[in-house]
Amino acid sequence: MSTQRRALVIGGSMGGLLAANLLHRAGWDVQVFERVGEALAGRGAGIITHDKLFDAIRRAGAVVDGTMGCATHSRVTLDRAGKVLAEMPLEQILTAWGRLYRLLKDVFPAARYHFDKSLTRIEQDAATVTAHFADGSRTVGELLIGADGIRSTVRAQLLPQSKPQYVGYLAWRGLADENAVSDETRRALSDRMGFGLPPGEQILSYLVTGHDNSTRPGHRRFNFVWYRPADEQTGLRDLLTDAAGRHYEYNIPPDRIRREVIAEMHAAAERLLAPAFVDIVRATAEPLFQPVYDLESTELAFGRVALLGDAAFVARPHVGLGVTKAAGDAQSLVDALTAQPDDVAAGVKEYAAKRLEFGRTIVAHARLLGLSVGIPENGGPQSPLMAYLRRPEIVIREIAVPDWAERTLNLSRL
Ligand SMILES: Cc1cc2nc3c(=O)[nH]c(=O)nc-3n(C[C@H](O)[C@H](O)[C@H](O)COP(=O)(O)OP(=O)(O)OC[C@H]3O[C@@H](n4cnc5c(N)ncnc54)[C@H](O)[C@@H]3O)c2cc1C
Fold first, then answer.
1. Rounded distance from Cα 16 to ligand 1 centre (Å)
2. Atom 19 of ligand 1 has which residue's CA nearest to it?
3. Where in the sequence is the domain holding 26, given as residue range(s)?
4. How far apart are the CA of 387 and the centre of ligand 1, in A?
5. What is the CATH number of the domain that holds 250?
6. Are residues 203 and 336 located together in one domain of the fold?
7. Is any ligand 1 atom within 6 A of the Cβ of residue 186?
8. Considering only CA atoms, which residue is closest to atom 27 of ligand 1?
9. Does residue 59 fall inside a structural domain?
10. pLDDT tens across 210-265, in order?
11. How far apart (Å, rounded) are the C-alpha atoms in residues 284 and 218?
12. Both 299 and 406 in a single domain?
């Protein structure tokens, strides 16, 4: 009989794949269960990377090399006419979600990754945990990891009071082929990350890997993220309704977004954004938008069950840490389980003690950075902190930077 301990990982995206690979390499019998029925790699947009993410990817058994992403060397803030208002040097590697997914999926044994498996509930006793799926099947393990994202079924069962809170704005995103934009746009933004600050909004754009994950000039794509306000009851509800009148509660598939919604977004781009951003937005074949949420879990350990990644905490994208946080969670959990070889629940508890505080800190920091979008609460005037964060030289210094922890300290003193 095998003495391998069995781990059930719910969710086969970034958090799930990182945890699964690390546990597999630590000697566990790991099974991943993903709700979606086919490879996810075609979806997603740009990802800002950090050294800690690369450490985790190496530890997961994948190779980190020059093909990982596109290098950017500086950041600029552009005004409406495209004039540079502020610039600062910063080296960063920018990649696409699909590139990381492929990398992590390819190093994990395919036979242990199960598509089309939607968890419905879990139960546990002193020695085991059982996962029940929508197709009526179930499976038993000694550890279950809830890596099932912001709408986690695992969290909803164990911690129903922790729910995502809509923050009043959404992010339009998309990828435009580098060759689909003008020479001027390429010159303006090819090796630097660009920011724009229309009143009460914010846009940023940078180059990421291409369709074939290529980093070669001519084969890359421009990613953009454009934050725009949307009232939950009226604006957001309307945007989440398709042409047939069907309303999507959280995310509308890109091909269901109504034509007039896209046309209005294009018209707003012409009105509000620098020419390079307008070019990128218009050249994006399939734009999508995501409502922005804050999510804080009050607990991450439930006996043999652990929450990680977006199932545990979601910080607004301004910190640029979504995947890096999931990687840190996965490493911390596997380290704690390794340190407690005879007691899974004690390992899970040790993990939670370390990562709860971290999660709270980055959610708070991302909330603070959210002020840089410039939407005053209750329609009031801009606070001095908001005005400060929206200064052209400050926004490029604070948004999605590697040394965010030091910055938290500096900003909290203001
Ligand atoms: C297709 C896709 C594209 C993304 N693109 C981007 C991007 O471009 N930029 C960015 O910053 N972030 C993106 N994200 C989010 C990013 O992956 C997360 O913020 C972060 O990496 C943490 O990942 P996670 O694995 O914890 O959560 P997620 O990436 O949200 O993954 C959760 C996974 O769990 C699965 N799942 C949910 N419920 C169940 C269930 N009941 N049973 C089984 N499986 C379930 C989901 O299908 C999903 O694959 C994307 C996520 C997905 C799923």
1. 9
2. 322
3. 6-45+99-164+294-368
4. 33
5. 3.30.9.60
6. no
7. no
8. 149
9. no
10. 888 888 999 999 999 999 999 988 899 999 999 999 999 988 999 999 999 999 99
11. 16
12. no
Same domain, 140 and 22: yes
Cβ burial of 354 (10 Å; 0-12, 13-18, 19+) is: middle
Do 263 and 284 lie in one domain? The reply is yes
> Are both 136 and 279 inside the same structural domain?
no
Tell whether 273 and 391 lie within a shared domain. Answer: yes
Say which CATH number the domain at 151 has: 3.50.50.60
Atom of ligand 1 nearest to the CA of 36: 47
Residues of the chain with pLDDT > 70: what percent? 97
Inform me whether the pLDDT recorded for 2 exceeds 60: no
Average pLDDT for 399-413? 78
Could you give the dihedral angle defined by the CA atoms of residues 34, 220, 68 and 15, in that order, rounded to the nearest 10 degrees? -20
The minimum-distance atom of ligand 1 relative to the CA of 44 is 5
Q: Which residues contact 69 (CB under 8 A, 6 or more apart)?
A: 47, 49, 93, 94, 95, 96, 99, 208, 209, 215
Average pLDDT over residues 40-65: 86
Whether 373 lines ligand 1, by a CB cut-off of 6 Å, is no
Q: 3-class DSSP state for residue 105?
A: helix
Bridge partners of residue 28, in order along the sequence: none
Look at the chain and report how many structural domains it folds into. 2
* Ligand 1 within 6 A of CB of 10: yes
